[in-house]
Specification:
- The chain starts with a helix and ends in a 14-residue tail after the last helix.
- The chain has one domain.
- Helices cover 70% and strands 0% of the residues.
- The protein is mainly alpha-helical.
Length: 98
Amino acid sequence: MFARLRPYLSTAALALLIFYFGFHAFTGDGGLLSSGERDATLMAKRAELTRLTAQRQDLEVRARLLRDTSLSADLLEERARSLLGFADPRDYVIRMQP
């Protein structure tokens, strides 16, 4: 009986390999069915990148205003009061948890 099936063994092995790789092409991490998850992750990462880019630009502007060549008195006073915990007697102070 094994002698009758011997010519078909290579075809069966090739069919199993094609099925295996085809199955993983659809359902694997980089498969066709997981493209929705990749798109959602990509959109979330783009939104995070936009937020971080805006935050970095704000920090660069603040750092530029604190340099010796272009010192902003208002920003310097704000940072000094924030770091030292001082307030002007005429200011309203609202304490918030960080």
